[in-house]
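Notes to self after the Tuesday call (sharing in case useful).
The group wants a holo model before anyone commits to mutagenesis around the pocket. I volunteered. Ligand is FE2/S2 (inorganic) cluster. Logging inputs and output together so the record is complete.
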Amino acid sequence: MNAPKLSRRTFLKLGAATASATAVPPLVARAATPAPPRQPVTATLSMHVNGKPQSLTLDTRTTLLDALREHLHLTGTKKGCDHGQCGACTVIVDGRRINSCLTLAVMHEGAKVTTIEGLGTPQKLHPMQAAFVKHDGYQCGYCTPGQICSAVAVLDEIHDDIPSHVSGSLTTRASVSATEIRERMSGNICRCGAYSNIVEAISEVAGSKA
Ligand code: FES
Ligand code: FES
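Result:
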């Protein structure tokens, strides 16, 4: 059977009509409305820092480290890894050393916080600070505030009969040996490798305390 003959004009008209019937309607551009930024939740916090009462209103996500450094301008405490791995941020809270980068400031309402600035002054060094100077327990000094805060707390832990992984007994007082000191200070990393001098400094203070 022969197909009907179409003129070129008729063919084009038919094509145009088909195309318009099947055209996809244009998409309606939806205006992307960004969600308004969420306001940070804040809380007011009171602490004793280096013996002084402090009141701070902070974003509740602020770490103790950032509260000390950025809000109280106590920059002696250092931020190394910000992940609890180097010990540079060690401070003493209610008598125990902690990594201040791993804890929120709002968790320490009413706490007594001691930083390197609260241990001694250039004119009147804490015995541990003096021993670090005497034994060259630092090179660049970046880890040193955390090392010293940790060392002060280590001697208190031993005097409080808190055993470590290398203590020979869980019930008797640990000796202040180099092994005990190395184990207890193992969370404080020194990239300059001043470890042997740090142990000597701590041992000297421990000897004078014992
Ligand atoms: Fe806190 Fe490294 S900065 S452990
Ligand atoms: Fe430089 Fe310890 S003195 S990292």
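Two things stood out.
DSSP finds seven helices and five strands in the chain.
The helical segments are 8-22, 64-71, 116-119, 127-134, 144-159, 178-184, 195-209.
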